[in-house]
Fold this protein.
Amino acid sequence: LAQAILAQAVAARRIGRSPPLPAAAAASALLLGGAAMDIDLLNPDPKEERAKHKLKRMIQSPNSFFMDVKCPGCLQITTVYSHAQTVVLCGNCNVMLCQPTGGLARLTEGCSFRRKVE
């Protein structure tokens, strides 16, 4: 059965018509002796991709980013690195905007932020 489906797919390709993709995939899966894969390698789940290590993702991307932080006192916007390793103070009123932790910097209560886009 699998060889017949594959033969039809090859014949259709020679004529110039491409066979429907699921039939060709099913035929190749039957020929290989296994079933279709459980996961879709071309369209990974965004939640699973985000949870992976930054170097193990399909397209490598950093976990860090720059953000605009608004001071709760004077409403001035300051650019802060997400993994800042020093205390960041407001340029106007010297209020602490964020404090370092082991990874992501912790924003002070009342500070609002947004990710910077290139």
Observations:
- The first strand starts at residue 66 and ends at 70.
- The mean pLDDT is 83.
- Helices lie at 2-15, 21-32, 46-51.
